[in-house]
Amino acid sequence: MIAAQEPVQRPLDARLLVVDSRGRITETPRTRWLDQMDAGDLVIANDAATIPASLHGVHLATGAAIEVRLAGFTSQAKGATVGPIDVRRFAAVVFGEGDFRTRTEDRPLPPPLKTGDHLAFGDLSASIEALLDHPRFVSIRFAGSSAGIWEGIARRGRPIQYAHVTAPLALWDVWTPIAALPVAFEPPSAGFVLDWKMIRAIRERGIKFATITLAAGISSTGDAELDRRLPLDEPYWIPEATALAVRTRAAGARVVAIGTTVVRALEHSAAVHGMVRAGDGLADQRVGHGSRLRVVDAIISGTHEPDSSHYQLLRAFADDETLVRVSAALESGAFRTHEFGDSVLIESARQSVCGSSHSRKRRDDLVATAA
Amino acid sequence: MTPSVTADKSSGLEGVRVAITGGTSGLGLAMVGELMRRGARVAFVARTRERVDGVTRSHPGAFGIVGDVAAKGDIYPIALQVLGNLGGLDVLVNNASALGPVPLAPLADTDCEAFELALATNLLGPFRLTKALLGALAASARDGRGSLVLNVSSDAAINPYPDWGAYGASKAALAHMTRIWNEELAAEGIHFLSIDPGDMDTPLHAAAVPDADKATLKRPATAAAELTETIASGLRRASLTGSRA
Questions:
Q1: Taking 90 as the threshold, does the pLDDT of residue A5 lie above it?
Q2: Are B219 and B201 within 8 A, CB to CB?
Q3: Is A182 on the interface with B (CB under 8 A)?
Q4: Beta carbons of A47 and B139 less than 8 angstroms apart
């Protein structure tokens, strides 16, 4: 695959690789992804807005230039509240000098970090509360009021960015059209497939739409040891309307997750409560090979390399043989990868094992007729 | 089937999250006070830090945000702080306004730059801020909280007053944009209103008509009470209707 370098959320030529429950692979323009849905299907997206979580500043003890990438919430912050979002404490990855133009793997290390070290980002200041079992992975605490910290982050922060996108990203590049609560550290980029025209079309076609909010953490650190700890535990929030929509969906209607974060939130809630329940939680599970999907029937996701945690999650939807064929198709078809790249739609193999929905059967019939 | 509505009737705005631009003078300032008095949680935006700090001090609990809605680069930082501080958003009031040329001038004498500033403040700014906050407003609607955008208009949006060209044209466009937003998003449960609060005794009016007889002008507090009631009744209707009928 090739990296998508332009920060365009919905390029008109974006492609969608479709994998049905039997492992059959087809391709369609991504702008037509809604044609893959049936009336009654429940499409669920993550409406988290993205914090500009990259902060350039100074490690005061040494005067060294550093970049801090806020990676996740350390305390169990609520995914959504009627009240200020707590931004005093974060888990963070610290880099030495330089910026996103250098691949994270090649970035210089920061100076040795100690608990109590002070960091300054313009007017915004922070201290290191603890090292999180790694010399570059720390818990930091910002000084000042919550409103002052939000202002500092709004003024100083940039979206976390990787070297494959060459132009500096602005917040409008990374907020999905439905972005609501700013709790994500990187965009829930599968949601880039959505726009408001699409949401209108969803309604007109009798498809259901709902959202969860999951505080998606950092996706890559450039450090193999740290990357193995990803995804971090992520707070999430499920609105009452979403829990209700899942519970009351028509027999045979599918739950289609826009992105891995949606799978994580819904499946966590269902595993803990036996059903998707409204309220907040902390997604701390790994979804992957052998995971039982209790709720989600299909996923729309970006295209991912096999060594990524996103790819591991797809193993809950399709067997390894199918995913190997998917990877080969993405590779030979020169699909674009990363957050602004092409997408896949994978229907859970369970769909066919459990006896699929009427709608599935109907489409299978159509395929059979056409064949 | 209206327990929450009945319970809210005393104020209708208890816990409602409201953002308002131009919150340090005139109608905006009066609305910050009125909204807070009725139990809303308020974030306000204005350009000058000293004035933002002053209003924050005089309205404990309000979140003051320094930013210029006419500046494209300020919009997302404003939106981020609104959403971070309020934890979401139910109501957006686009109130900040620019007259265009001061003193007022015929269109033929209006500098293009003055016209552009009026458009940037009165039209593009509300468009951009609404767009940045739309996801949060839609989330509120899906939650059944109701969701409303109130754009402050003027009779100059309807009547072709000589010398009010930049202001009147920008406000006319804002009013029309409001109607289109509403057509497009009412089905999502987000409702848009544009309201003319009337001629008020405000710094903006004084700049436009320096020798106006202030006795004939409406007090901003009166207009603020009316607009705040409009918001409350709008939310009542929205939450009764539901967003996904």
A1: no
A2: yes
A3: yes
A4: yes
State the Cα–Cα distance between residues A132 and A93, nearest whole angstrom: 10
Residues 6+ apart with CB under 8 A from B106: B162, B163, B165
Tell which CATH architecture fits domain A53-156: Beta Barrel (2.40)
- Mean pLDDT computed over A226-243: 94
Q: Omega of the bond prior to B3 within 30 degrees of 0, cis?
A: no
A101: tokens are 């133009």
**What's at B119, amino acid-wise?**
L
A vs B, Cβ pairs < 8 A, gives 103
Q: Does A203 touch chain B (CB under 8 A)?
A: yes
pLDDT of B210: 93
Is the CB of A154 less than 8 angstroms away from the CB of B139? no
Q: What does the angle CA B11 – CA B15 – CA B21 come to, to the nearest 5 degrees?
A: 95
Q: What is the pLDDT of residues A337-366, one digit of tens each?
A: 888 999 999 999 976 544 444 444 444 434
Whether the CB of A173 is below 8 Å from some CB of chain B: the reply is no
> Above 60 in pLDDT, residue A217?
yes
- Fold classified for A2-49+167-370: QueA-like (3.40.1780)
Q: Which of B55, B85, B131 to mutate to test the interface with A (most CBs of A within 10 A)?
A: B85
Please say whether the beta carbons of A236 and A276 come within 8 A. Answer: no
* pLDDT exceeds cutoff 70 at B3: no
Mean pLDDT of B179-185: 97
User: So where are chain A's domains?
Assistant: 2-49+167-370, 53-156
Which residues of chain A lie closer than 8 angstroms to B84, CB-CB?
A: 84-85, 87, 146, 150, 153-154, 182
Judged by DSSP in three states, A120 sits in strand
Q: Residue B113's CB: how many other CB atoms inside 10 A?
A: 10
| Per-residue pLDDT band at B10 (split at 50, 70, 90) | low
Q: What is the C-alpha to C-alpha distance for residues A43 and A211, in angstroms, rounded to an integer?
A: 8
- For the CA atoms of chain A, what is the radius of gyration? 21
The reply to whether omega before A231 is within 30° of 0 (cis) is: yes
Q: Which residues of A196-224 are buried (b: 16+ CB within 10 A; e: fewer)?
A: bebbeebeeeebbbbbbbbbbbbbbbbbe
**Interface contact A84-B84, CB threshold 8 A:** yes
* Alpha carbons B53 and B31: distance in angstroms, whole number: 17
In the set B167, B168, B171, B177, the catalytic residue is B167
Radius of gyration of chain B (CA): 17
- CATH class, B14-237 region: alpha beta
Q: Report the first-to-last Cα separation within chain B, whole angstroms.
A: 16
Cβ contacts of A371 within 8 Å, gap of 6 or more: none
Residues of B in contact with A214 (CB under 8 A): none
Residue-averaged pLDDT of chain B: 93
| Contact yes or no for A49 and B187 at CB 8 A | no
The stretches of A124-216 forming alpha helices (DSSP H) are 146-156, 171-174, 196-204
- Give the tokens for residue B11: 């104020």
Q: Does the active-site annotation cover B161?
A: no
In this prediction the ipTM stands at: 0.93
Calculate ∠ Cα A280-A284-A285, nearest 5°: 120
Region of A111 (left: φ > 0; alpha: ψ -120 to 50; beta: rest) is beta
